[in-house]
Amino acid sequence: MNSIEEKLWDYIDGTCTVEDRQAISLLIEQDEVYRRKYNELLELNKEFAAIELDEPPMAFTYNVMETIRSEHAQIPLKAAINNRIIKGIAAFFVLTITVILAIALANINWHTGSSAAPLKLNIPNISPYITGRYMQVFVFFDVVLGLYLFDAYLRKKAFAKTNITVQTDGQQKQQPE
Amino acid sequence: MQSKLADIELIEQTLAGNQSAYADLVKRHQRFVFTLALRFVKTREDAEEVAQDTFIKAYRSLTSFQQQAKFTTWLYTIVYTTAMTALRKKRLDTDSIDDENMYIQLENQGGFDTNNAENKSRSYYLNQAIAQLLPDDATIITLFYQGEQSLEEIAQTLGMEANTVKVKLFRARQRLKEKLERNLKHEVKELI
Q: Could you give the C-alpha distances from A176 to A24, A170, B25, in angstroms and in order?
């Protein structure tokens, strides 16, 4: 069976049923023992709620972030490389090799009986395509791609630098407190 | 302003690579995490270590945080497990001192001076009394009052049933009241 104190704590916490709440409310109004106990617990409840939190050392956040940063710095390059880039490069090579292999196999004359006969491969003549204009387009594409990658690299570097600055500022602000 | 951002927004920014967002999250919760750690390990140095480990563990597993529960509930669970591990380690290091004895010793040598009682604030006596409680009692009181966690959230943090937490909270309050009364002796009647 619940003690008076237990019932009153439930009432104060708001964890009792509506019926119990009404009954306890009535008891507090009418019963002197209940009323006194209720006021005592209510005061105690206020006291408990007013317990102050302890303050960690001033450099606490800085220490946490430093540990996190040093852990990040220790990650080997192998783990830091994006797997999608590796997969993309692998897919490119696999595709290139497959295409070359398919062209080569398609051009082999399988009906040639004599092994002494020289193997003639019907390699497509690409020399007309290696003209000044095609080369210019190719070089232009390479330059654009190079600039794009360089820009991405600089952005990444600038972002990392901003983060470090924010952290350092936070630490500087914390120190004088 | 970033200080007004919700925990969840700071988490999203952290996951997007913005470490300063995580620093804001640490600043926001460090006082409570440190206080909670102090309920277990008692010395400020150990509490700082537990609190620091908590935030580092939280950072590492931030991707696994499912936003079904509050971030604080998830964070306090990490504080609890980290503190328990630290306590277990400490127990192994110090020839398994019985908890109850240890706290009785703390209570006796707590430096409580009744002559100075009138000069101390209410919060001083409460902090003293809460420091004399067993870790479980002190944690439940802290989570309920300072952490403003519901019984269900405390149950989730401590891995208990909500009803068990309710009973434990009732007992913890009674013990805290007893400690407070014992410490304050005659002054308690004026204070509560």
A: 53, 11, 21
Interface check B20 vs A, CB under 8 A: yes
Distance from CA of B160 to the nearest CA of A (A): 17
Q: Could you tell me how far CA A14 lies from the centroid of its own chain?
A: 40
Interface of A to B at Cβ within 8 Å reads: 5-6, 9, 13, 15, 40, 43-44, 47-57, 60-61, 63-65, 67-69, 71, 159, 163, 166-167, 170
Of A54, A65, A159, the CB nearest to B35: A54
Residues in Cβ contact with B22 at an 8 Å cutoff, skipping those fewer than 6 apart: A65, A68, B10, B14, B59, B62
Residues B92 and B77: their CA atoms lie apart, in Å, by 23
> Are B23 and A40 in contact (CB < 8 Å)?
no
Q: What is the pLDDT of residues B30-68, one digit of tens each?
A: 999 999 999 988 789 999 999 999 999 999 888 888 777
Q: Do A54 and B31 touch (CB under 8 A)?
A: yes
Whole-structure pTM over 0.90, yes or no? no
Residue B56 contacts A, CB cutoff 8 Å:
yes
CA dist., res. B137 & res. B100, Å (int): 13
Q: What angle do CA B127, A11, A45 make, to 5 degrees?
A: 15
CA–CA dist A126, A103 (Å, integer): 14
Model confidence over A30-89: pLDDT tens digits?
A: 999 999 999 999 999 998 888 888 899 999 999 999 998 888 766 555 556 677 888 889
DSSP states of chain B: -GGGS-HHHHHHHHHTT-HHHHHHHHHHHHHHHHHHHHHHH-SHHHHHHHHHHHHHHHHHTGGG--TTS-HHHHHHHHHHHHHHHHHHHHHHHTT---HHHHHHHHHHTS---GGGGGGS-HHHHHHHHHHTS-HHHHHHHIIIIIS---HHHHHHHHT--HHHHHHHHHHHHHHHHHHHHHHHGGGHHHH-
Under 8 Å between Cβ of A32 and B104? no
Give how far B175 is from chain A: nearest CA, Å. Answer: 12
Average pLDDT over residues B106-119: 44
ipTM reported for the complex, 2 dp: 0.74
